[in-house]
UniProtKB/TrEMBL annotation, chain A:
Naturally occurring in which organism (per UniProt): Sulfoacidibacillus thermotolerans (Acidibacillus sulfuroxidans)
UniProt xrefs under Gene3D superfamilies: Phenylacetic acid degradation B
Name of the protein this chain belongs to: Phenylacetic acid degradation protein
Organism superkingdom: Bacteria
UniProtKB/TrEMBL annotation, chain B:
Organism placement in taxonomy: Bacteria, Bacillati, Bacillota, Bacilli, Bacillales
GO cellular component: cytosol
Gene3D superfamilies named in the record: 1.20.1260.10
Name of the protein in its database record: 1,2-phenylacetyl-CoA epoxidase subunit A
GO MF term set: phenylacetyl-CoA 1,2-epoxidase activity
One annotated GO biological process: phenylacetate catabolic process
Organism: Sulfoacidibacillus thermotolerans
Amino acid sequence: MERQIQNQHYEVYEVFVQRDALSHHVHVGSVVAPSAELALQVARENFLRREKAVNIWVVKQENVHATSYEDQDFFANQVLSKSYREVSGYAENARKWKAFKQVAITVDDLVNDIKEH
Amino acid sequence: MSDLELQHFMDRIERGEKIESTDWMPDDYRKLVIKQIHMHGISEVMGAYPEKEWVPKAPNLRRKLALIAKVQDEIGHGQLLLRVAEDAAKPLGKVRDDMITDLFVNKVKFHNVFHMEAPTWADAGIIGFLVDGGAIITQASLLESSYGPYARVLQRICAEESFHMQHGESVVLALAEGTAEQREMLQAAVNRWWPSMMFFFGPTQMSSGAQRMMDYKIRTRTNEELRQKFINRYVPRILALGLTVPDDKLAYNAETKLWTYTEPDWEWFSYMVQHNAGPKSQARIELRRTAHEGQQWVRDAMLRARQTVEASA
């Protein structure tokens, strides 16, 4: 028993912190701990001595599945021009609206309308 | 390791890409990264000792709370850094316990400044002012490190160091505007720490290991560059407080934009760090050992509890 314990070590848990209810959990680092419960406490002491948060996840490092940094081909879907997907691809709208004696608006303008109600 | 692999790796470094623990890397890159971060992490932990000595003796409650917070930060930084070192050392099978116990058998060194005595309250202030100042300069330069996990963790550490810096300066400023006795105490502390700070950044002629770290961009600034930045920033501040710097060779050359200074006793400081032979080295290592070994039963109990849970599941 004693020998078994000596050959055992704490496990690595990756730590994800959610700053507020409208934020996603963000990876901040990792801790070693003997259990998930204690990993949560160590994570709080290591990463939240000052910053505020509403939730913490800890995930055993061995349970994280990741892409490879070296195999950037995985992200090949990002190399094509995607201007048709992006706001910046529609810059000419502003010039055209001007011809119709209107100014271009953005999604922020509509969101702000709601806020002003 | 094929030449092609190495070339590919060096190309990544040259392009300014960050290396991750799971990427292919040359063995000596991995070893240098582990050595650097292990030493950094253990230095954070040992750095808590000179300051913790002043927690019970802090002059008021606010100072006491701030000092406790600082000590807690240093231990926290140690844990974050050791975690990064462990991930790098995973293929070598090195775990937390090894990282900690290496200290007891002199397999990992810690910064020269933490071997020194902190006999007065002014020392607690000067540690925050000059030692943390020097540490921030070093750590800020490492934000550019080619080893991604190190650069990332240093962002958090540097942000917290900014509190340490303000705390140290606050203590120093209070003493500087205090009584003659307080100012004397402050000057004595500056005199005590200055040679240690000149040693802190390491010799101008860097070791082959340090040079290798530059080639790999694990670090990107020379020892002398960092020391010059430190002198340039802190000498005017010390003088502005009406204090003196204990170095009659200290002078700024406007042409070369470099400072001349008296070399610290390289031989003695190196010996001290290599052999843990400083005035407080052994006492602080002994405290660390007592804490680590004294709490072994708690760690064992935790592991046993986990076994019980798994067995009953």
